[in-house]
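Researcher: Structure prediction, please.
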Amino acid sequence: MKRIDDFVASLGFKPLGKMWKEISTREAVLVATLILHRDTAYSAKIMEFDRAYALATSFTNLFTLDPHFYTNGLYSSLSLKALRNGLSPLPWSGNSISESTMDHGIVCKDANVMGILWVEDED
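Model: Predicted structure follows.
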């Protein structure tokens, strides 16, 4: 996790060490779709689901050589079908990497590159 922590720290975020949760590509697409589709504070729609899903998929597809995805928290229930049908995920729990009231996203790495898709929100 040191590489992930060093990367986020270089962007001004707080490292999480062992609190990072490694997730599958499918889960990374779900998290990315959610944070692009709905805001984290009130679950208000930011963009259409199909656009959010396309952007999330495009982003995760950038990582091709042994990709790994990490997030700072998980939802107790999250599915593309629920998001597409306008349902909000069940409660999220996790660890913040920013000074904002809420933040969530994915950090991605493969053999050659690292990237981050992150949102911060206030209530």
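Model: The mean pLDDT is 88.
Researcher: Thanks, that helps.
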